[in-house]
Structure formats: structure tokens, C-alpha cells
Write a structure and sequence with these properties.
Number of helices: 17
Order of helices and strands: HHHHHHHEHHEHHEEHEEEHHHHH
Number of strands: 7
Radius of gyration: 23 Å
Strand content: 5-15%
Strand order of the largest sheet: 4-6-7-3-5
Low-confidence stretches: 6-24
Oligomer: single chain
Helix content: 40-55%
């Protein structure tokens, strides 16, 4: 299963996607056919040629199954280790290393031009499309048109549909080749149409930016995208570390950076190898709280978050890249004691945090986003709990004024 930028909700720690009970609902009015005719006129007004619209029109069909998928994604909860073990298991690490050897000359050119190392690009390539083996099965024009018509995220997908037509008009892709994911992403790196239009490059020199058939274009475009997201040449991105029990846990947050030397003073040590230079800023991230794996995230980790803001996904890609580069398996020992909350428990926690006076939680939706994480940390500090921003049954019990069940 491909976890992409649109489908993978921007959550941290646990993966919780919206159910019909949690998702925002709206009702479509007016016929799809009338909407499409109005869209075509708008597209022409925005510079899309009538020839391109005529070529694309037969594929801009309404697909009710896409609406159903978008509105009713199933709930599932996975820890970072559950998700990363599954997504990096099997043959993904040796296959990724084999891809680097197979395309060594391409990666060398990309490294020289963009400064993005091969393991990082291969990690995205492997998780997004299984190295180009699985692009998806949906017509991209149909997917984007259907979701542009739908009331839930119409503005976003209207822009994607227009950019899909611009990609065709630019000559990068043909209508029949635009097959991908139900959420409108396609190609080896599963770019949205807008990301494709902004970041795709012609690296094989054939005059087209082809992220479907051309491996050089696909890999170089990903490097170009990461560079636009702030990738810094020659710097690390993620490193597993060990942390002492008496850490100032409130400092563990992706939004907080300290020099590596400060983390060393607090007792942070490399799990293997050596830490980066002492003056390099880094964040301590705990994707499963203080009991689970710990990583120092260096400035380049922000590029992973820019690609996909979900911590579980981004941390998994970054970790996968370190494994391809030769790092050992992350320590699983402490994670045995980590309890994963259900979506219903998260909603109860959000209600309790809001009731306690924290107005930063936002919607009671069962998702651990940045607002809920911040509220959790504040509550942990107030209650004298380790402030690692991780949701726990103990925190719920303390907020309820009861002792946790053992």
C-alpha cells in the first residue's frame, strides 16, 4: 500500500486516517456534467488549448468509487516500528542497494548537480512506487476531475486538474499514459500534478520531463524537489541515538533545535557510529515517545517533512535511507511497553485537553497533529509527567482525575 502525501494524514507517532465518523462531510449539488462544462471554459480562459481539452475530455469521467475512498478511509493505527518494519522489510533494502549499483552513473550526475545522495532518492522511490513497479491503476484525469467536483477538497484538486492539463499541453505526458493513484499522484515518485509541473526536470535530454518512463528524469526530479525543500549538500539527515532516563523531555520536538554539543551534554549518544559536528543543529525526535526509538534529526530532515508532513511516513523514509546507506536495524527493545491509543481514545484525550482550557487542539478528530502534540506536552508539564508529547493512557487517566488501570 502506497502512503502518499494526500492520503497519509499529517499526523505524528501513530497512523490514524479518517473514518466516516471522523471525516468532514459535505454534500455535492449540481450535476457533474454541468460542472465539467464550466470547468472546461475556465481552463480555456487560463490558457489551456481547446485541442488539449478535447483530447482529455473522454478521460475526465466521474468515478464514484474515488469519492467513497476519499470520504471513508479505514481507521488503522500503527506505531513507527510497525510501519517502518513493514515498509522496509522483505527485499526493499537489498533491492534499493541494487538500484544504486544499477544506476550508478545517474546517481553520480545527480549527486554532483543537486547534492542529494543516492540512498535518499532510492528510499523515496522504493516507498512511493516500489522502484517504479506500481504506479497505481486509476486515470489521473478522472481522479483529479472527480475530486475537483467533490465538495470536500475542491479547490486543491481543481488546481491539480488544471496542472494535469498543463503537463499534457507542455508535451511531457500523453493522456493515455496518465495512470496512477486514486488521489491523483502518479509516476515513479508519485508526484501530484502541481509538484510535477514545478519540479520535474529533463535529465535524459530527450526534450520531455517524463516521470513515468524515464528513470533519469524521475530520480533527478526528486532531487530537484528535495533541493527546493531545503536539502543541504553533504549534511546528514537522521541518526539513531540513545537517551538517558533523566532527559529534559520537553526539548524533544521536531520544532526545537539545539547544537549537537548540547544534546551530548544532556547525555544523548550515538547508537552506532559518531554524531555529526558539535555545532550542527539537530532535533531529538521520539516517534513512539521516550520508551521507543530515538533519533537526532538534522536540518535535512525538514526536506523529508516537506515531501510529506506525516512524521511516521517521513521518519520511515529517512530511516529507510539510512538503512540503505548501511545503518543497522533500529533498536526495538524499549518499544515493547509502548501503548498505542485507538482513534476513540485520542478523541477522548482531545476532549479532555480542550476541557482543561487548551484551545490549540483544534478539531476533535482522533488525529495526533501538531496542535494536539503541543497540548499534550503542556498537559504533561503541568501534571509532572515526562513531557515527550506522546499520548498515553496514563495522561488520559490523570486528566480524568483517576489512577491509570494496571
Amino acid at each position: 500500500m502506497r502512503m502518499t502525501k494526500l492520503k497519509f494524514a499529517a499526523v505524528a507517532f501513530t497512523v490514524i486516517l479518517a473514518t466516516p465518523a471522523l471525516a468532514a462531510h459535505c454534500r455535492n449539488t449540481g450535476s457533474y456534467e454541468k460542472w465539467l462544462e464550466a470547468f472546461k471554459k475556465d481552463a480555456i480562459a487560463q490558457g489551456i488549448s481547446r485541442a488539449v481539452i478535447d483530447a482529455a475530455a473522454p478521460s475526465m469521467t466521474f468515478d464514484a468509487s474515488i469519492i467513497k475512498r476519499d470520504h471513508g478511509q479505514a481507521v488503522f493505527s500503527q506505531t513507527f516500528l510497525q510501519f517502518s518494519d513493514r515498509m522496509t522489510g522483505g527485499g526493499r533494502i537489498p533491492n534499493g542497494q541494487a538500484k544504486i549499483r544499477q544506476h550508478a552513473s545517474i546517481f553520480a550526475r545527480i549527486g554532483k548537480q543537486y547534492g542529494v545522495p543516492a540512498p535518499v532518492l532510492v528510499a523515496f522511490w522504493g516507498l512511493e512506487s516500489d522502484f517504479g513497479a506500481d504506479f497505481g491503476k486509476y486515470k489521473i484525469l478522472s481522479a483529479n476531475a472527480t475530486l475537483a467536483y467533490d465538495c470536500r477538497r475542491s479547490d486543491f484538486f481543481r488546481a491539480q486538474l488544471l496542472d494535469t492539463l498543463r503537463i499534457i499541453q507542455r508535451g511531457d505526458q500523453r493522456v493515455d499514459d496518465l495512470i496512477g493513484d486514486w488521489a491523483g499522484e502518479f509516476g515513479g515518485m508519485q508526484f501530484t500534478a502541481s509538484d510535477y509541473l514545478k519540479n520535474a526536470v529533463d535529465f535524459d535530454g530527450d526534450g520531455r520531463r517524463d516521470l513515468i518512463r524515464s528513470i533519469p528524469d524521475t530520480l533527478a526530479s526528486a532531487a530537484n524537489f528535495l533541493t527546493s525543500l531545503g536539502w543541504q549538500r553533504g549534511q546528514p539527515w537522521l541518526q539513531e541515538v540513545t537517551v538517558p532516563k533523566d532527559m529534559p523531555w520537553q526539548e524533544a520536538d521536531n520544532t526545537i533545535q539545539h547544537p549537537v554539543s548540547q544534546w551530548v551534554k544532556w547525555g544523548v549518544r550515538p547508537a552506532h557510529g559518531a554524531l555529526a559536528a558539535g555545532d550542527l543543529p539537530a532535533s531529538l525526535i521520539l516517534p513512539m515517545g521516550r520508551l521507543g526509538p530515538a533519533f537526532l534529526a538534522y536540518p535535512n530532515f525538514k526536506a523529508f517533512l516537506g515531501w510529506n508532513s506525516a512524521y511516521v511516513y517521513s521518519t520511515t523514509v529517512a530511516y529507510y535511507a539510512t538503512r540503505i546507506a548501511g545503518a543497522p536495524v533500529v533498536n526495538h527493545a524499549g518499544a515493547r511497553d509502548v501503548v498505542v491509543l485507538t482513534a476513540q481514545q485520542v478523541m477522548e484525550l482531545q476532549r479532555l485537553l480542550t476541557k482543561a482550557g487548551d484551545d490549540g487542539v483544534g478539531e476533535i478528530d482522533g488525529k495526533i497533529g501538531s496542535g494536539t502534540r503541543t497540548a499534550i506536552k503542556k498537559a504533561q508539564i503541568k501534571l509532572g509527567l515526562p513531557a515527550d508529547s506522546y499520548p498515553t493512557p496514563e495522561l488520559i487517566a490523570r486528566l480524568q482525575g483517576a489512577s491509570p488501570q494496571r
